[in-house]
Amino acid sequence: MDNIFSTRPVLITGAGRRIGLALAKDFLARNQPVIISFRTRYPSIDELEQAGALCLFGDFSTDAGIKAFADTVMKHCGGLRAVIHNASAWQAESHSVPHSDTLAAMLQIHVNAPYLLNHLLEPLLRGHGHASSDIIHFTDYVVERGSDKHIAYAASKAALDNLTRSFARKLAPEVKVNAIAPAMILFNEHDDAQYRKAALNKSLMKIAPGEKEIVSLVNYLLESSYVTGRTHAVDGGRPLR
Predict the structure, then answer these.
(1) CA distance 214 to 211
(2) Other C-beta atoms within 10 Å of 34: how many?
(3) Cα–Cα distance for residue pair 210/189, rounded to 1 Å
(4) Hey, which of 76, 99, 109, 169 has its CA 20 to 30 A from 52?
(5) Which residue among the candidates 141, 153, 195, 220 is catalytic per the annotation?
(6) What is the pTM of this model?
């Protein structure tokens, strides 16, 4: 399969909803080619395809699925402008699921998939000049404080946070590698008023700012020629509460 892109695309994993979807739409609106991965075909996937995104099925629950996805990406393009690891799952500890299964699932999606994809797609990121490519990992505010109800999730995001610095060392100076650690960015439709009030009171800024905060930060990181190996908190000042 030949390269179908005239400009290096941005790859976003798990871009069918929320922040990933907002990023994809922003890039497309600015004529930046986009490749996205999806596991569930939400209606938004059709919308992104109509806007010009290349939408590829990706099952990151196995190493074989991760490699198959990377192989498909490499068949479609000769280079990548960035890889944004947005695919995530929020699985709590439960008496109905063995704890080892919960930990394995969280490590697979938040650590193993980014780790393998970074290695597999490295040839597409290199060779384009100084600080010309980017990797962005989405971690979480809970990396700093832990979580009593989402222990495996927090641990896996902490591991991803550490991968940021290791890959920054490995891929410099051609590729910048950063992490974004959000807290409350936007609510789900089913969140009730009591939950929303409690969540807002956890930060100094007392708002759910929406995806624009993340979109702006991603664009800043892509435009920078110097910032790498850092975690960028988007948490409304929660640690100061």
Answers:
(1) 5
(2) 24
(3) 13
(4) 109
(5) 153
(6) 0.96
Q: How far apart are CA 50 and CA 205, in angstroms?
A: 37
Residue 116: which residues within 8 A CB-CB, separation 6 or more?
63, 66, 67, 70
Closest CA to 91 of 77, 105, 71, 81: 105
First to last CA, the chain: 53
Nearest to 155 by CA among 94, 105, 115: 105
With H, G, I as helix, E, B as strand and everything else as coil, classify residue 202.
coil
pLDDT at residue 2 greater than cutoff 80: no
Q: Where are the beta strands (DSSP E) in the chain?
A: 10-12, 34-38, 54-57, 82-85, 133-138, 175-182, 231-234
pLDDT tens for 103-153 read 999 999 999 999 999 999 999 999 999 999 999 999 999 999 999 999 999
Q: Which amino acid, 88? A: S
* Mean pLDDT, range 48-67, rounded to an integer: 97
pLDDT tens for 72-87 read: 999 999 999 999 999 9
Please report where in the chains the tokens 């991968």 appear, as a residue. 163
Rg of the chain (C-alpha set): 18
The residue count of the chain comes to: 241
**Burial class of 129 by CB neighbour count within 10 A (0 to 12, 13 to 18, 19+):** exposed
Local confidence band at 189 (pLDDT 50, 70, 90 cut-offs): confident
Three-state DSSP at 15 gives coil
Q: How far apart are CA 68 and CA 176, in angstroms?
A: 25
CB 197 within 8 A of CB 143: no
The answer to whether residue 153 is catalytic is yes
